[in-house]
Write a structure and sequence with these properties.
The chain is mainly α. It folds into two domains: 55 residues, Winged helix-like DNA-binding domain superfamily/Winged helix DNA-binding domain (Arc Repressor Mutant, subunit A, Orthogonal Bundle); 49 residues, no CATH class. The chain has a two-stranded antiparallel ribbon with strand order 1-2. A hairpin with a 2-residue loop joins strand 1 and strand 2.
Length: 109
């Protein structure tokens, strides 16, 4: 999804070649995942020549937000506080990120 969002649209080959720069992956794996994402409604495909051009159906922020809310509901019973505590305790947030988070909390009050 990140590859398609960053480009606005992409073929399986586009995504495959971009992913190959990071790790070894089979073309058929990318094709299968993009078809799954299309069936779930995250991507829409259109025939262009002999291939399909995939476009995201919703903005990245909207999809990621939905996924995070679902994760927090399933894993933490709907409360985000334990997730944030875990990230802070395991030092997954930099000092800059912690400062930015503190500023956001103050702005919400």
């Amino acid at each position: 999804m990140k590859r398609v969002w960053s480009r606005g649209h992409a073929t399986v080959r586009d995504v495959y070649e971009a992913m190959l720069e990071e790790r070894k992956i089979a073309y058929t794996t990318v094709m299968t995942m993009m078809n799954v994402l299309e069936k779930k409604g995250h991507l829409r495909k259109k025939a262009v020549g002999r291939s399909f051009l995939y476009r995201p159906t919703r903005p990245q922020r909207q999809v990621v937000g939905s996924m995070v809310r679902d994760f927090v509901q399933r894993v933490f019973g709907g409360s985000a506080a334990p997730l944030l505590a875990l990230l802070v305790d395991e030092e997954r947030l930099t000092l800059e990120e912690l400062d930015a988070l503190a500023r956001r909390v103050k702005e919400r009050r």
